[in-house]
């Protein structure tokens, strides 16, 4: 059943690479549907997590969502995106800037950190045998 775009929609996101650094992969899960992006270039785990968060926002925008909750297991990405921690890594700053630009297109953006065992996107990546 389709939802009204103004209802809060939850998107679980996860990214990773093996080895670290290495080829990056991303996954997003929302309402029982999983999306994957393989071979997101070469980078580290933090870059892969940022790419997954941005992927979640792209999917939310494509579905005309206006109120989103982004759920991930990267404490660093959640802390930086929420403004609780400064981004001191020059290679991550462009991701944070892209996040702020994308967030401006939504009425409401929430962020929540969960353990890896509770991250549906992380579970989806693990089931694919990527991590």
From TrEMBL:
SUPFAM superfamilies: Ribonuclease H-like. InterPro entries: RNaseH-like_sf (IPR012337), RNaseH_domain (IPR002156), RNaseH_sf (IPR036397). It holds the Pfam family RVT_3. Residues 5-131 form the RNase H type-1 domain. The keyword Hydrolase applies. The keyword Hydrolase applies. Keywords: Hydrolase. Its EC number is 3.1.26.4. It comes from the Bacteria. Signal peptide: none annotated. GO terms for molecular function: nucleic acid binding; RNA-DNA hybrid ribonuclease activity. This is Ribonuclease HI. It comes from Novosphingobium chloroacetimidivorans.
């Amino acid at each position: 059943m389709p939802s009204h775009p103004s209802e809060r929609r939850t998107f679980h996101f996860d990214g990773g690479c093996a080895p670290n650094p290495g080829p990056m992969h991303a996954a997003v899960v929302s309402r029982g549907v999983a999306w994957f992006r393989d071979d997101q270039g070469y980078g580290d785990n933090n870059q892969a997590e940022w790419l997954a968060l941005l992927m979640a926002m792209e999917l939310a925008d494509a579905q005309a969502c206006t109120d989103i909750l982004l759920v991930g297991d990267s404490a660093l990405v959640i802390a930086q995106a929420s403004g609780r921690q400064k981004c001191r890594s020059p290679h991550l700053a462009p991701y944070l800037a892209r996040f702020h630009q994308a967030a401006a297109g939504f009425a409401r953006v929430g962020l929540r950190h969960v353990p890896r065992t509770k991250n549906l996107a992380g579970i989806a990546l693990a089931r694919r045998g990527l991590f």
